[in-house]
What does this fold into?
Amino acid sequence: MKALFLDHIGGPENFALRDAAPDNLAPNHLRIRNSAIGVNFIDIYQRTGLYPISTPAVLGQEGAGTVIEAADGAPFKPGDRVAYLSGGGAYAEEIVVDAARAAAIPGGVSDDIAAAIFLKGLTAEMLLRRVHRLAKGETALITAAAGGVGTLLTQWSVLIGARVIAVVGGAAKVAAAKANGADIVIDRKSTPNIAGAVRKATGGRGVDVVYDSVGAATFEPSLDSLALRGMMVTYGNASGPVPPIAPLDLTRRGSITLARPSLFHFATPELLPEMAANLFSLIANGDLTPKLGATYSLEQAGEAHKALESGATMGSIILKP
It folds into this structure.
């Protein structure tokens, strides 16, 4: 099979497509022929060394395709369509994954959509139902609201009945966030004082929760946007890692809570089936409408990384092997 290797930490020019021997099939594992592969910021963090990895390495945390071989104990059979979390190795024509990290793709959901949203959608499920269980009537501030996770977070929050204040960058993304149902949209390119705009929109109270994937550039404004006893959830570093903060500073800001979750600590074998079912049911019913922003060939993964890093993309990006 062909796999895309990252030969050295650094820029996207360090990718190289070449032949690779498929992994052996361990008990309870699946061999999957990829139809589509999701591209995520964690891939960029690994490529640049923010999240250290050894090279050469095959990146990629999620994908979707068809089971071509199932080991003893695996609850799938050849021909089944599945989406999976891999923890690496997805940038390839085939992959071997633990069946406990896979979920059946229901009818009405394409492989492309499943690959585009599995990790991102499970992240949204984690944030909205497990880290801070968003309730009807609460107000949520969502940064990067026109991106892959942000699109799903906004739509899902509106479905719950929460009030959404979205932060985006640029007129096109303002329009996208409004189309996703956000009540108020703040363009950070034209509104430098995000916290001031949030306070004005909430009558000075602030928001119950912030879901922030931008990182360093929006960390302080997000903290300053919280209501008394609010929760700040930082789950990404698109603009760089957030600075350290003293616990006493959380008290001074109103006894707020700071959380930094990882999907892989939530999407465990015990919880993944329920989380995937929650996600796919909403997509199959049309309650969530994921946005597929761009499609690249496997060999064009470097271009996909450049597009994602630029901040100009809307929706999710996939690779096609």
The two ends are 10 Å apart (CA to CA).
